């Protein structure tokens, strides 16, 4: 049965795999919605049966999972040729944080952290709402409001695992001053919806920064990877980084053994090759991998090859005047070194948005044909990119591949959210424990 988005509830969004796990619904309806880790899917809202219709209506209004709308913007000053596929772009640079420790620990050139810190240390922002590894279970993430360099430094590095930074938006509302938000494109899109609903939130956001994002793998992906690396029990993990500490860095895990702390690692490329097979379904229907709803978006400059031993560089994109001002202030204050790049570099970026939008049109068409749940997108030229940006084979693949996935992923069925609770180290009193030796290597794709 086709699911008209007008009659969807937050529970439908989660159980019908339209959820991207941002956490915004829990921020606007905290008495009735709680974000939990769902092992095979990602961060998901658990909705109480007592939830009131009005609160849940607000939750749906801020949900990016059901769909997105690109607002009609004043095109003055925007790079016209990039607008259809990449969203609003005023200017772009390649560069890095001049704070060497930050740059080394950062995922790319630590642009996200450097810009956020500039706002806190020099431009009057109170803190940065973003995500970090959970100290009690470092293979999971939680949302934090960082107010010091040490806290921002501790949260550097992309985490290829479920994270719901919007579930902490109340911390921004409670803060004594404006804050910076860092998240993935869908997280930032949720913030854009939430600030329209709540003007008080709009006033408290100094800057939004989006990191590029190809897909979020499930927690199962990370646990299987730990199993491959021979880590016997995730409860013994004391540190886990997906990249950073070099560019792009390595997947690194430290865990307790009877003989002391042991470390294992794997190349970033091999880890991503494994993890991306566990991507949540909604990422296949994502129209925005580069953060078009943010003031600033940052990614890897993968339009060029990385030099031998080269340390981190970021592609930094100004999408709004506020974003451009922050970037120019970072350069003027010596916080970042930046060189302007032209629109031609976008031809070599990954993900490549013209192809993403084209494939998305084919996928949505297949879901429509099969009456399977699908998000709605407005203001995005999807059909045009399907027609002009794809060859015959990918055109067919976008439709036929999706038809196969509808059955393989059981997209017609409901997938109730069940909470995965991490197990304390060494404790037999596990709520939900997991023995990595027994974890199946089967991926979701
Ligand atoms: C799931 C995922 C997919 C990615 N896919 C791509 C890609 O396709 N192309 C590409 O160029 N780059 C991708 N990246 C990497 C990322 O966009 C770049 O490394 C970006 O340049 C950020 O680097 P930085 O050095 O500026 O960040 P840093 O200064 O190291 O800061 C990283 C910031 O991101 C936040 N963060 C980390 N993980 C998450 C998360 N899972 N959810 C929300 N916030 C998070 C941290 O809290 C921190 O504030 C991906 C990252 C993730 C997490
Ligand atoms: S996409 Fe975000 S707002 Fe929508 S249901 Fe999922 S967590 Fe909630
Ligand atoms: S691919 Fe899109 S939907 Fe998936 S996590 Fe990244 S930004 Fe969100």
Account of the 3D structure:
With 445 residues, the protein is of the alpha/beta class. It has one domain. Helices cover 33% and strands 20% of the residues. The protein contains 16 helices and 15 strands. The protein has helices at residues 10-15, 24-28, 53-61, 83-86, 100-105, 111-122, 149-154, 169-174, 185-197, 199-204, 219-228, 268-275, 321-332, 353-369, 382-389, 392-408; strands at 33-38, 42-47, 67-69, 91-97, 127-134, 137-146, 179-183, 205-211, 237-241, 250-257, 260-267, 296-299, 314-318, 336-340, 376-378. The chain has an eight-stranded mixed β-sheet. Strands 9-10-11 form a three-stranded antiparallel β-sheet. A hairpin with a 2-residue loop joins strand 5 and strand 6. Helix 6 (111-122) packs across helix 13 and helix 14 packs across helix 16. The radius of gyration is 21 Å and the shape is globular. The protein binds flavin-adenine dinucleotide and iron/sulfur cluster (2 copies). Flavin-adenine dinucleotide (FAD) is lined by residues 106-113, 130-132, 155-160, 163, 165, 182-184, 187, 211-214, 216, 244, 289, 298-300, 302, 312, 314, 350-351.
Summarize the structure.
33% of the residues lie in helices and 20% in strands. The protein is α/β, with parallel strands linked by helices and 445 residues long.
Number of strands: 15
| Net shape | globular
Estimated radius of gyration: 21 Å
Average residue-wise pLDDT: 93
Write out the distinct hetero groups bound to the structure: flavin-adenine dinucleotide, iron/sulfur cluster
How many domains? The number is: 1
Proportion of β residues? 15-25%
Structural class: alpha/beta
**How far from one another are the termini?**
24 Å
Q: Order of strands side by side in the largest beta sheet? A: 6-5-7-8-12-13-4-14
Assign a percent range to the helix content. Answer: 25-40%
Number of helical segments with 4 or more residues: 16
Give the assembly state of these chains: single chain
Largest sheet: 8 strands, mixed
**Weakly predicted, low-confidence segments:** 1-5, 428-445
């Amino acid at each position: 049965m086709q699911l008209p988005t007008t009659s969807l509830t937050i529970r439908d969004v989660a159980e019908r795999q339209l959820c991207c796990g941002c956490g915004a619904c829990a921020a606007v309806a905290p008495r009735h919605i709680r974000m939990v880790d769902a092992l095979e899917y990602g961060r998901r809202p658990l909705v109480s049966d007592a939830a009131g219709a009005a609160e849940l209506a607000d939750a749906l209004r801020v949900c990016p999972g059901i769909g997105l709308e690109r607002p009609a913007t004043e095109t003055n000053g925007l790079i016209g040729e990039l607008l259809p596929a990449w969203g609003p772009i005023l200017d772009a640079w390649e560069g890095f944080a001049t704070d060497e420790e930050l740059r080394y620990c950062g995922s790319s050139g630590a642009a996200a952290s450097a810009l956020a810190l500039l706002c806190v240390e020099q431009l009057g922002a109170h803190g940065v709402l973003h995500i970090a590894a959970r100290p009690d279970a470092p293979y999971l993430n939680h949302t934090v409001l960082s107010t010091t360099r040490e806290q921002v430094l501790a949260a550097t590095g992309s985490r290829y695992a479920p994270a719901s930074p919007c579930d902490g938006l109340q911390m921004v509302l409670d803060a004594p001053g404006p804050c910076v938000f860092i998240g993935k494109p869908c997280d930032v899109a949720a913030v854009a919806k939430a600030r329209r609903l709540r003007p008080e939130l709009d006033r408290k956001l100094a800057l939004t920064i989006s990191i590029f994002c190809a897909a979020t793998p499930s927690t199962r992906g990370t646990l299987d990877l730990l199993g491959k690396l021979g880590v016997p029990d995730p409860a013994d993990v004391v540190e886990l980084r997906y990249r950073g500490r070099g560019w792009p860095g390595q997947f690194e895990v430290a865990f307790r053994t009877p003989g002391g702390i042991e470390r294992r690692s794997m190349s970033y490329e091999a880890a991503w090759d494994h993890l991306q097979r566990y991507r949540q379904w909604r990422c296949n229907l994502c129209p925005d991998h580069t953060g078009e709803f943010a003031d600033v978006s940052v990614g890897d400059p993968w339009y060029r090859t990385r030099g031998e031993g080269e340390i981190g560089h970021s592609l930094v994109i100004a999408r709004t005047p506020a974003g451009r001002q922050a970037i120019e202030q970072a350069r003027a204050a010596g916080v970042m070194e930046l060189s302007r790049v032209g629109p031609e570099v976008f031809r070599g970026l990954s993900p490549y948005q013209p192809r993403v939008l084209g494939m998305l049109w084919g996928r949505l068409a297949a879901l429509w044909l099969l009456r399977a749940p699908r998000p709605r997108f407005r203001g995005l030229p999807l059909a045009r990119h399907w027609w002009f940006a794809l060859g015959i084979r990918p055109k067919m693949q976008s439709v036929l591949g999706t038809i196969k996935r509808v059955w393989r992923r059981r997209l017609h069925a409901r997938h109730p959210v069940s909470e995965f609770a991490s197990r304390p180290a060494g404790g037999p009193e596990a709520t939900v424990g997991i023995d990595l030796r027994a974890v199946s290597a089967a991926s979701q794709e």
